[in-house]
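Let's practice the habit of predicting before peeking. Look at the sequence and jot down your guess about where helices and strands might fall. Then scroll down.
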Amino acid sequence: MHCPDVICFLETKADSASDALKFLRRLGFDKDHQIPSQGMAGGLWLFWRSSFVTLDVICSSSQFIHCSLSQQQISCLVTFVYVQPHVAMKDLFWTELERLARGFSGSWVVMGDFNDIISVEEASPVATRGFGRAQHFRDRVTQCNLHSTEPLGCKYTWVRKHNGRVLLRERLDRALFNFEALESFPAAKVINLPRLCSDHHPILLCLDDSCSIGKHAKPFRFEAAWLTHDAFKSVFTQAWLLHASSLPNAINSVQEACFQWNREVFGNLFRHKRQLKGRLEGIQNSVHYANSSFLQNLEAELLQEYHQVLNAEELFWCQKSGIEWIASGDRNTRFYHASTIVRRSRNRISALKVDGEWVTEPAHLKQHT
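Done guessing? Here is the structure:
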């Protein structure tokens, strides 16, 4: 059973939510924001429980409600959308969304019915004539610096039927995340719930990690960033030679030595980076900096060490992202970091279908993985 604190109804085709409002009030949804339909087109109704979540509507139009949301440790901007299926209205929506994207910094999630697919595989039968449509949608998503993630549940979110038979299925509904949201909510998941009373599947967004498993059971992985440290070759060689006569024992010896060396010497790459920046800032802000050869020499040493850490960080995220290295004059750390977060989201096991039923409880998931 899902108990969301925020619910948004799309394409309501109604001027007023009076009947729904009475029912939702009894469920604890004491706040609302309504966008009436235009005739039989559009309409958005947003409801939330003010005792569980703080939500403020920033702006809205006939196709979206843009708001700030905070709850315990969660804080972000969320835009609920219903994009009308007409070229002119789609152009208007994306123009407005690009304006929103340029107007702030921070975590941002855009979710709802976009009335578009991001690839031809998101239609069944496959939309062989929809390549241009999908490419156009991808371009617009990219222009807003947003990323799509893989959902749990049904692959498609909308169905067209005729005389009770399915003619077409498409994934029109989704949640898009900007980089800051991917970074802030690495365990976020989108679930396409069963379709019961509509031709659309409801989509559920969970920003916490309550369904993640195996958080502390990480296997040993060789980190390519270790190779940037001058001492690593010696650590590896000594550990290997201790048990060189037995391959399994030699591998175990290297693993133990790498764990210990990483903890005691190589340390946390990101903490080291912050410490170096702090020391450099202190040197450059010193009143003695201009006349002190000691401080200037120390600055040069720390800058060299800082750039070594940046190279190691780029190598770290490149390895984590699982994609090919991109040769470039500039560092691609942010790109690899975003790729890593998307990859982890896709690889995370948040639910399993067991005997026809979806299992999401961590204890039950561990029994089947």
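How did you do? The mean pLDDT is 82.
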